[in-house]
Amino acid sequence: MKGKAMKTYSVAGTSQGPDGQVKIRFANDYVGRFKQLIRNGHECVNLIELGEQFTKAEVVAALLDHPQFQSLEDQMAIIEYATRNRKTIQEDHFAIKAVRAAQTRVDTMEVA
After folding, report:
1. Mean pLDDT of the chain
2. What whole-number distance in Å separates Cα of residue 94 and Cα of residue 42?
3. How far apart are CA 70 and CA 41, in angstroms?
4. Per residue in 67-90, is it b (16+ CB within 10 Å) or e — as a string?
5. In the chain, where are the structural domains located?
6. Residues 11-23 pLDDT 10s
C-alpha cells in the first residue's frame, strides 16, 4: 500500500467463537488477547508468539505451514481469511504462494 504503513503483529492464531466459527486472530499481546477471547466465550483458543513483527499477509503464510495449525478447521479458517483479503495478501508474493499450496493440501484433506 502506497503512503500507508502496514500494521504488524507479534501474536497470531485461531479460535472458535461462541457461534462455532473458527477464525484467524491477530494481536500484539499474547496474555491480553487470550484473556479477551476467553472472556468473550471463545473455545479452542490457539495462539502463538511469532518472535517478531509480521504483516497479516506474512502471518497467514506462517500459520499455513506451522505444525500447530494443520487441522482442517484451522487451515480452512486461515484460507478463508486469505480469500476474503485477497488484495492485501497478493501484495506479498511469498504469502500468495503459501496460500495456494495450503489450498491444495486442504482440498486433499477434504477428499480423504
Report:
1. 84
2. 31
3. 23
4. eebeeeebbbbbbebbeeeeebbe
5. 9-111
6. 999 999 999 999 9
